[in-house]
Amino acid sequence: MPLQYNEFYNEQTGLTVGLKKKLFSKKSEYQLVEVFETDTWGNLMTIDGMVMLSERDEFVYHEMLSHVAMFTHPEPKRVLIIGGGDGGTAREVLKHPSVEQVDMVEIDETVVEASKLHFPGVGDFDNPKLNVKFEDGIEFVKNTAASYDVIIIDGSDPIGPAVGLFERDFLKTCFDALADNGVLTSQTESPWVESYHPSMKKVFTSLGDLFPITKMYLSYIPLYPAGMWSMACATKKESPLSDEVLKRASSNTYLLNSLDYYNPEVHRGAFALPNFVKRIIED
Ligand code: SPD
User: Fold this and answer.
1) Are 193 and 226 within 8 A, CB to CB?
2) N or C: which end of the chain has fewer CB within 10 A?
3) Model's pTM, two decimal places?
4) Is 209 an annotated catalytic residue?
5) Residues of the chain with pLDDT under 50
């Protein structure tokens, strides 16, 4: 019998990945964090049996969650990442020369431990601009006096410790912690998985009430349920689709050449939504 990882997102339907061996397994105070060596995708991290990242496709998620926000803001200096313990989002944010400080608030130190051990290409943990805090991101944002240019919510699925990241109260505290022209992005699950629709709807309704501009965008991540993944971009001032933003997204060729998924055309096209996706978040 071959060794396999299965993530079922509807009864017997799901994702299968061939495994070579288990590299890491730790039940933390919050969740079960595991890392496997796969036959196709490099190392794979799961939390409570759900894929978080693989070495081979993580660039899609991390580039799209980061650069859409980072190019939408005119000059992001202070960035807050909620979750993101594998370090991939921070790695992308830190590619922007305007960045002075990145606070990454991860509830579970085990995620960072597993990433440092088994995903050496993902985290940029020694970067002096990166400030890692092990605490509850929801409490952190509620109590912070800081004002951020960009907040990126890189949490897990809305099950377990990440449930609160999809709630209006938390999103309101994020709004309050953003500067006047602040930008927020968040991962918002797969449009193909119906059990996630209520959480998606809740996030987009809340952001739509709080921010002048809120849009959904999509990217394609093979190891996430059904491959199509949604993200939210909410801004206090500038639309992520303004001419200024798209010009800015084209301006740093050095940065763009280091990326494998994001480019200005992908930025613009990612906001084009199929009708069935629009309906999930429409009133
Ligand atoms: N089911 C996949 C949900 C992914 C959420 N975050 C992944 C963390 C990668 N930094």
Assistant:
1) yes
2) N
3) 0.97
4) no
5) none
